[in-house]
Amino acid sequence: MKVVFLLALVCLCGDSFAFVNDNKQQRVIIAANPTVAPYVISENDSGIQLEIVKAALNNQDINEVDVHYMSNQRADALLNQGHVDIALNYSGILIAGIYRSQSVVSYENVVVSLKKSNFTINSIYDLATKSVLAFQNAPAYLPKEFGHNLENLRGYEEVFNQQAQIHHLMAGWVDTIILDRRIFLHYLKEYQKTNTTKDFVIHAIFPPAARPAYFNNDLLRQQFDKGLANIIQSGEYRTIMLNLDKQYTQRDFTRF
């Protein structure tokens, strides 16, 4: 009886390790939003967030990666259905079978207004009576107080293409825009190539928001977290952040 039990245990362990090895060799499909440059740059499958994710996977010998570009809502649906392996952003309620990694990067959502407006914006409540143009599904990513106070705004709209937020603000079509600081600086840099910009004020009223990656396979999530920890310890993470932040936003950071 002991011999039979040991043989069964060996078989089970063999299956488990075979799954790990197979998982390392599989082609991983990542769902990413194409409008969140510099975190994701669809033109060359690069960007700060995407390069960190690929580096963490590569650390675990997962080198076959396909990136599919789509809205956050579609990424939620395809991850839930098992059609993609990783979603870089997940705006839905975390359901059973969806696993969150350690934080890949922190977003810093801010309010931006034109300097000539002379707005005092120190909290969410100071947005009352002002028009706001935010990124898609913003209430899901911002503090809950923001969503609770939408009715107090003079106007509220969302856009999928965040580059349009810069044009709307500079044209004076909206009082304020809400987006991540790096995204703002990246698209501002692009806008300045063909347009004259006006002086602006960045109101940092939101706390930094950790951005994990989301998985529908917990084993893959565990491998990813291990790879992420390894590249942080080795300094590769910091190198990616420093180089790409400077390249895409012209900010030169010395600490991460």
TrEMBL record:
Residues 1-18 form the signal peptide. Keywords: Signal. PANTHER family: ABC TRANSPORTER SUBSTRATE-BINDING PROTEIN (PTHR35936:SF25), MEMBRANE-BOUND LYTIC MUREIN TRANSGLYCOSYLASE F (PTHR35936). Belongs to the bacterial solute-binding protein 3 family. This is Polar amino acid transport system substrate-binding protein. It comes from Pseudoalteromonas issachenkonii.
